[in-house]
Design goal:
This protein is mainly β and about 300 residues long. It is about 0% helix and about 45% strand.
Length: about 300
């Protein structure tokens, strides 16, 4: 069977729940050139194939759907945290398809990026809680904050090109983690890949510790936002940010570290005797814990 937006003029909506029961040649095809909204959600255990350059929006409650959404082209928008449950799966088999998280949605369905040329563009603001695997790559775009809480294992790596990505799960695989000049990396998760940051790095979640098990490089123009919460050297990860690096740490000329006070100085008393003694070097805060060599 098939559904579509009948020529793609404006936005069209299906209020009833869509039953998806077929697979392979009997899959349900959603051919969208404009915007088709499935407000009633999905049910069944079949395969829904998204075709066309338009946007397919999943709303409603699809918690009982245990099938596969095959994103072959265009955009897939998750409009609510119930739009696709953890029992479903998403298969991406194209370069440049977009996954949008709308309305601060959480998506726990596992995602597979098949093929070396597969690139999934992640947009919007929300939580990506499921595992992501495959030979492809993930590219974070758009101005929103997206939190990755699941295990990401990709052959093509992850790039943060715009907005904020909070890494609170893990990134592994043969690819690298790259944060370009327009992107920001934060979170308390683990990067098990070589990481290069040219944009902004704000480790933790005000504050916290972020872990890099491979080499970490800050290029020229990169900014590290280091947060301090109170008059103390104790509480690394709770009172101030920390960055752990198992590999080598490199600072290129022109990379900077900027101090940021949490809660607008509320817990920082400049008249406290704490500030009257030397707190530099080994007597200061342990911002970086590095097992390899430090350059720069």
């Amino acid at each position: 069977g098939s559904v579509g937006d009948a020529g793609g003029s404006g936005s069209q909506e299906i209020l009833a729940q869509l039953q998806v029961s077929g697979n392979a040649a009997d899959s349900v095809t959603a051919n969208v050139s404009g915007n088709l909204v499935l407000s009633g959600g999905l049910s069944g255990a079949g395969n829904l194939v998204k075709t066309g350059n338009g946007e397919l929006t999943l709303g409603g409650n699809s918690s009982g759907f245990t099938g596969t959404v095959d994103l072959t082209e265009g955009a897939l928008t998750i409009a609510s945290s119930q739009a696709l449950g953890s029992g479903a799966t998403i298969q991406v088999s194209s370069s440049g398809s977009t996954l949008n998280l709308a309305n601060a949605s959480r998506l726990d369905a596992p995602i597979t990026l098949s093929g070396l040329e597969t690139v999934l563009i992640l947009n919007g603001a929300g939580i990506l809680g499921g595992a992501m695997t495959g030979e492809g790559s993930l590219r974070k775009e758009g101005s929103g904050l997206t939190s990755l809480t699941g295990a990401i294992n990709l052959g093509g790596g992850v790039a943060v090109e715009a907005g904020v990505m909070s890494l609170d799960g893990s990134i592994s695989g043969n690819g690298a983690l790259t944060v370009t000049t327009g992107g920001t990396l934060m979170g308390s998760g683990t990067a098990n890949v070589t990481t290069t940051i040219s944009g902004m790095h704000s480790p933790g979640n005000s504050p916290g510790i972020q872990i890099f098990t491979e080499d970490l490089t800050y290029t020229t123009g990169s900014r590290i936002i280091w947060e301090l919460n109170s008059n103390t050297l104790d509480g690394r990860g709770t009172n101030y940010d920390g960055i752990d690096v198992s590999g080598n740490l490199t600072f290129d000329v022109g990379s900077t570290i900027e101090l940021s006070f949490i809660t607008d100085f509320a817990n920082t008393d400049w008249y406290n005797n704490f500030w009257n003694h030397d707190i530099s070097g080994t007597a200061g805060w342990k911002i970086f814990d590095v097992e390899g060599t430090v350059t720069g």
